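**Discrete fold encoding**
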Amino acid sequence: MKIEYENYEIEIVDDNFYVDNTSKHNYQSKYSGGHKVNGRSYAINKRGIIIKELNNESVFSSILLCENGGRTKISLDLFKIIEDDLLICIGDKIYCLKIPNLQINWFKSLPLGTNYLINSFKEDYLVFGEIGLVRINEAGEEIWHYKGENGIFIPGNGKLKISDSVIELIDGNDKKYIIDESGKEII
């Protein structure tokens, strides 16, 4: 997936079969668990991020994020760009990377199983995963965590609705949960 942001082209790729120096991408750095990896990574999720200046084919910066947890297909729901920060979900982790150098601002493992979606909410972010919802602040610190009684949430149209003060979730059994902005169930 390629997107343009300011003077840059940002490409996000699933590179799950990457083995050192065998990919068409030559990543400048590799990280797993928020730490730099020098050798081979055996993680099942490998997501590459490549930044180029617009109208220039040379790579400005690149990184390979290697994590375990469930796989998700790259979509616009899995990342957000906010004020020169790229927030990206991979498996059960989330990274916040500085654009354009891809320096890690913060890294967080979330108690959600596989992360499906990240969305802005007030001045914070909501991360929707297979076993709940977490609200984190811009520094990646957890504000609250919500888990429904069934515990299994499946992504799809209408499964998550966010308004100014109310969040609606529908679990795998089609049970609806309505929670307020502080993570408390209303109904």
